[in-house]
Amino acid sequence: MIKKMEMDEERLREVLGFSCIGLPEKEYAEVLDRVNAVLRMCDDMQELDSSNVSPFEWDVMKAPARRQDRAVVWEGRDRFLDQAPVRDGDFFHVPRIIARDDVEMEGEE
Amino acid sequence: MEFHKLSALEIAEGVKKGSWTASEVLSAHLERIKIFDGQINSVVTLSEESAHRDAKETDKAVAEGKDPGPLAGVPFLVKDNFCTDGIRTTCCSKMLSDWIPDYDATAVKRMKDAGAVLMGKTNMDEFAMGSTTESSIFGPTLNPRDFNRVPGGSSGGSAAAVAAGFCPIALGSDTGGSVRQPSAFCGVQGMKPSYGQISRYGIVAYASSLDQVGPITRNTGDMAAAMDVLAGPDPNDTTCDAYERPSFSQAAAEGIKGKKIAVLTGYDAESMDRPLIEAIEKAAGYCRSAGAEIVEAELPITMKHAVACYYMVALGDASSKLACFDGMRYGHHADGRSLVEMYKRSRNQGFGKEVRKRILIGTCILTRGYYENYYVPATKVRQMIADEYAELFKGVDALICPISPALPYKKGLVEEDPVRIYLGDAFSSIANLAGLPSISLNVGFTEEGLPTNVQLMGPRFGDAGLLGLAHVIENKAGSPPIADIEKKGGCRE
How far apart are CA B198 and CA A97, in angstroms? Predict the structure, then answer.
């Protein structure tokens, strides 16, 4: 049985966590309005009887594309390294990301 | 010589005959962009050095008596979500603001191999999520036909550039109408080919089961020529069908005598802008006078549910596609005290407001409860829509219907009424859901100078026949002129 749903603040917090998006609490109401407007737009669709229908998948190909099973030599390594914010020889130099206490987070979610 | 007034085919013919050089054509177009793009902001990156180099290569080939390719010396622009070797590809987002790919998207490579000269990248809604080209980090693009209106989106920069005479061909990507709706708003011709017709390799994806590359031109002859170059199998995109394509140019020259063409009915025409209804009547009349039989068709499931189905599928797809932009694997990086904080800060700083909202909605509908009640039903409704069209095309050769329910929106509507903007995709998103070819064709202008247009749709892989139909209507309606931006003068605010 398909049912109509609305998103509430608790679910929004959960979804923010799943999507790794931060949102200031003052914007919660606006986002909830928007999400629920989209869900309401979709409510009619649920009333359609689709019980005997399979979910859509692409299967109509005249001639499936294939590629040869062989290694390809890639010569772009240096060009990528040249784009590194900080390069350390043949490596990207990346900042430490776990358990840092030197990052200012003030004013951010 | 006013090169910007020439079609792509005229430019190529002149280059091959030696009437002018690719370098001359390129310089004229670059100059026009530099003089006039300040008014509409359609181009975000110019690649002059590589363009001059490529144009010289074409001229050298001509001088040596070699075949310079079917699009010899034709300057073109591509949307900023196509990977371009050595040229930044930003998706008009802070997330990718400094990314320079080291390869060309297959579509770009095919154009270059055909002798066309890449001049640069065009403005777009951030990550192709929008219908107005107002959410770009480079600022909005304005409609060259009316600076108070949006050019449509998300390929608004490409459509505006073609309308303004900056290039005869531009490429865009179309997930729910992003090539065709801006083409309609800017008064040019835009095509979304069948799913599987053109490789998407090297395009930054929005929703892979819907995305397709499409050309934007000022006439259907150039469109067919671009399709001849762009369509074809690609070992790097297994969704791109390996069947042998017909000549699209040849098909475009064929008539429609004896064809059966349906006109869509059963939708709320009263709520649409009147000139767009008149455009459909006009196009149907042209087809009738060219010897086609006109019938009416209703598509009740599609008309009632397509837009809702589209947003469920597209946003669900998008939220998973964009998960890779986390500041570590891809995209803008911001420091954080923990891994999760780093992800959140990177994504918050890197993505704009609209993209974040769409990711949130997409994530929501893929979570427990919403997935079963919204996403899965949408995938089933999508199948029902595809079936409805398969049934229709058993009896008719093509369908004429609106591409957008409204004339170009006034600037700022997206902030005032975002759901109305979403509903504007009701007609354009159908072709993506069912994988069908679709052309947005200009058929004239209102008294205020706003473009009017129709959407033509055909059966899957019926792209060539659809181009033939478009060509017949265009012959009667005339191809759209270049926007009169010289007379508008001044600079944008």
Answer: 40
